[in-house]
From TrEMBL:
Originating organism: Mycobacterium dioxanotrophicus
GO molecular function: ferric iron binding; oxidoreductase activity, acting on metal ions
Lineage: Bacteria, Bacillati, Actinomycetota, Actinomycetes, Mycobacteriales
Ranges of residues in domain Ferritin/DPS: 19-158
Protein name, per record: DNA starvation/stationary phase protection protein
Cited Gene3D superfamilies: 1.20.1260.10
Length: 188
């Protein structure tokens, strides 16, 4: 670790800012790998739409990771972008769906995005007291992540405004599909 931080940010808050940003970096690295996994493993009638929708999300999340890593470096620390760092910082379950339908993946991604957005909003709140510049970076990211979740949810929404499999645990939609059951909220 270097012996400097950004002018006007003392060491104690700087350390906490770096920790919050490091957790976000690991989240972004995990998220872009998860999104790419979905891109490669989605099948079914809505394959092409979901396949093409995911890549712009991957690219932007990778750019978020780069921006956060550079902010960590500017704060005087070494950003950790390794698989080990992802595992160390991870507080969520691994994405459990392999090759499956668009609906199964989208229902699971909705839950992934919910977790990511809840976590980033907590970090934004805490950064408001520590560093408004880092907070602003994450606010911009949150806006895009919330838009991505809206894209996902548009595929899961029924005509009456309900989300299919909303509130299910990760992988539940895929399990229902494997057993020939319709997604929750659908009748056949």
């Amino acid at each position: 670790m270097t012996e400097f931080s950004i002018p006007g940010v003392t060491e104690s808050p700087s350390r906490r800012i770096r920790d919050l940003l490091q957790t976000q970096l690991s989240t972004y690295n995990d998220l872009h790998l998860t999104l790419k996994h979905v891109h490669w493993n989605v099948v079914g009638p809505n394959f092409i739409g979901v396949h093409q929708m995911i890549d712009p999300q991957v690219e932007l999340v990778r750019a978020f990771a780069d921006e956060v890593a550079e902010r960590i470096a500017a704060l005087g620390a070494a950003p950790q972008g390794t698989p080990g760092a992802i595992l160390k910082d991870r507080t969520w379950d691994d994405y459990s769906i392999g090759r499956d339908t668009a609906q199964a993946h989208l229902a699971a991604l909705d839950l992934v995005y919910t977790g990511v957005i809840v976590d980033i909003r907590r970090a934004i709140d805490e950064l408001g007291e520590l560093d408004v510049v880092s907070q602003d970076v994450l606010i911009g990211h949150a806006a895009e992540l919330e838009k991505f979740q809206w894209f996902i949810r548009a595929h899961l929404e029924t005509a009456d405004g309900q989300l299919i499999d909303h509130g299910a645990e990760p992988g539940r939609a895929a399990e229902r599909a494997k057993h020939g059951q319709p997604p929750r909220g659908w009748s056949i």
